[in-house]
Structure prediction request, 290 residues.
Amino acid sequence: MKNFFSKFVILVIALTIGVTTQASAAPPSVAYKDADKSGKVLTELRLSFEESIDAGNLELIDISYDDYSAAIKKTERAIGKVSGKTNRRALLEKYVTPAKIARERVIYEVSQLRLLHIILGLQSSNQFAEAEAAFQKLERLKKRAVEIKEAGGYEQLPVEVALTLDYYEETVVEIFEAYKSGDQLKLLINLLSTYGYLNSSSPNEYFMLGANPEVENGFWLGYQSPTYGDDVFMATLKSFDGTKATYEYDLTWDDSDELRTGEIFFENGVITLHFVDFEGNDVAVEFTLY
Prediction:
């Protein structure tokens, strides 16, 4: 009886070990495979996102930020379907945690850049009270960013990130100053300088460049033609009341010194440029600012 009992115990242990071994060798579930696949995609996005950060390219960071955040959420949801707390924790630590750390390094900078674009849009629509309120929000956001980053011990960002934000903020401040001083022409020039190159899609053969710093109240009007090639013409602003501007220009490509008059209208973030082309046609070109 004693020998029988010993053999029975050994048999139970052996069976238990066999079952455990089979369980540990079981293939990953479909949910685990989906989560792991999503995590690998997220890792690739994170590496690209971190490259943009290391390069200090805040504009590129901003462009990819929303898709990157969506990928984080997608991976989190996939991991949430995986059975086993230990499995979920391991996947989160492997994929989601480093992705979130990378995002948190620039979350406040992206928010500042987007708010600055909103302020510029309000300024271009002559909504200066709203722009001023948004600018005060920006100041609070900057202060909060410093506090959070100091407390969190985040890795320092490249200096180019701060330089980008400084450029936009300086432009915003210059536009505020021009508005408060009543210098409407300077206000328009600053707005044109802010957006630099404005490309029109209707008609797509016309485009306008921003301010010409070498000429007082000057900016560039460009013409692109499959027949005549590209030409850029000088224009000079003559008046601006906050919503409508007049300017003079010379289509020098035809060796003419005849000055012509055009108009620019600003409304709800859209610039509508009116001028007469080289064939004498009245042309209206729209440029969307935001």
Notes: Helices lie at 2-24, 30-55, 58-80, 85-124, 128-152, 159-181, 184-195. DSSP finds seven helices and eight strands in the chain. Confidence is low (pLDDT under 50) at residues 8-15, 19-24. The longest strand covers residues 229-240.
